[in-house]
Amino acid sequence: MSRPTHLTILDELGMQKSMPASKTQFEWRANATLNEAPVVFLGLGPEPDKVPEWFDLSSTETIYFLESLDFINQVDGWEKLVPANFERITPDEFTIDSAASSNVVRYLPEQRAFPSFFGPLTARLTLGGQQLHHKEKTVWIPSTESDLLGKELTIAFKAKGYAVRFLDHELTGKHPGNTLPEMLKDGVPDLFFSINFKGLDHFGLGFNILREAGVKVAVWMVDNPFNLLTSVKSSYWKDARLFITDHSFIGPLIENGARWVTHLPLAACPEIFAEGGYLPDYGHDLEDKLVFVGRSEFPKKEKFFAGLTPDQALLNEAVTMLERGQRPDYHWWQERVPAQMWPGNEVRSVGIGAEVSGFAWRERCLGSVGKSAVIFGDDKWGKLDAITAEVRPLLDYYTTLPAVYRAASVNLNVTGMQLPAGLTQRHFDVWCAGGFLISDTNPGLKIFPDDLTEAIRFTAPDRIREVFGRFRADSAQKEELRAAWQELILRDHTYDNRAETVLTAMGL
């Protein structure tokens, strides 16, 4: 027996999708409170002339429907197949109230193919019939307080008078239609603040449910925006309020359709770092050492870049640049590697080049300091021939790291290439903890005064020893710089400052 042939169309991302014509592809949501509720179809499918028979619909009753133009334009003669008693309505006419007072039928293949069109409609259907009330001065964060930035954001938003509620980001990200409406019954928050799209599903239903309920939704893209966007399967992100840690991505994001992007760098949390922490057993003898704290690679890196390797000729050129103190960063690779930035995973072929370049940069910087340095990180650092520094175990961010920053003679920052103008937590935490930092040069340092950055930055690996030597021992200049940096960070670059930026930018 031959398999049935279904219409094939291109979805909103340009991918081929099958559109089966059968009753089993529809989901009927009956209205339980009204006997004479009107019938509304969200999508009629490729053979609308068969719909009345499938659902035993009267030929005299007006049946309402909404349909995506992107779908209609791909089906020859589709409009001629629509029964005479079927009336097309606009998305604005399908409100939360009208969804609650109708029998609604969804053609599911289209919902998945055109989520930007059907997502808001499904959100109104999901919220229909609920009595929602606004819960003032409330922020929802899809994370846990133990996750990185969870504590910091909680402290910052609470300082602004906001209550913070943590959500199970796995649950809201996978089942937004079930979980978010239930949570909203307890009160509609002012702000849903997602870090790296946590708590938001790939197709944007959660985003639309929140927005239809009157919640302001913000996404803080702490990591490389285009690496994060590979997991997003609809255009909803273009309507989201985006905050990014690296200002150099504002232009590229807007070029790819983003409508609202604001720079929001990382920051310090003095409530945690100013005086907290204790030295672990392996945190001794750091008084005259250059200390680097960091992993050799981000978690699940191999899976993210599976099967990808950078072009060898470009990599050779990049390594040569590193030796000269130049930065073959993400934008450099993007200019040389043809790739669609979004949608899809093609852009990871850009990211792998930046990742390998960044590792080579860190390896050369850490190798240049020899045995005068101590690395707190994973075992991979100790297996590299170029690195002769002592490697010690990883530190707990909240308990031991602040004390290590204070105990070190000098702390070293080496910035990767994924975020060309992005800063790391070290740029804020070290000074906040009362430590001293030297850093490689990158455009992100421009948020600080030149007279402060000039003294503590280096351009090439062979310059690190010189800068370290200048500040290895205590001196009046070192203490003056430390005090100036700490004052700056505590005044202008705390998470309290960042929360103020978010609330102001979101109109709260």
The low-pLDDT segments are none
Most strands sheet: 6 strands, parallel
Spatial arrangement of strands, main beta sheet = 9-8-10-11-12-13
- Summed up, the helix count is 22
Helical amount: 25-40%
The pLDDT mean sits at: 94
The CATH architecture of the largest domain would be: 3-Layer(aba) Sandwich
The end-to-end span amounts to: 62 Å
What's the gyration radius in Å? 27 Å
| Fraction in beta strands | 5-15%
CATH fold-type name of the largest domain: Rossmann fold
CATH uppermost class of the largest domain:
Alpha Beta
Q: What count of structural domains?
A: 3
Q: How many individual β-strands?
A: 19
Shape: elongated
Structural class: alpha/beta
CATH superfamily of the largest domain: Glycogen Phosphorylase B
Brief characterization of the structure:
This protein is α/β, with parallel strands linked by helices and 508 residues long.
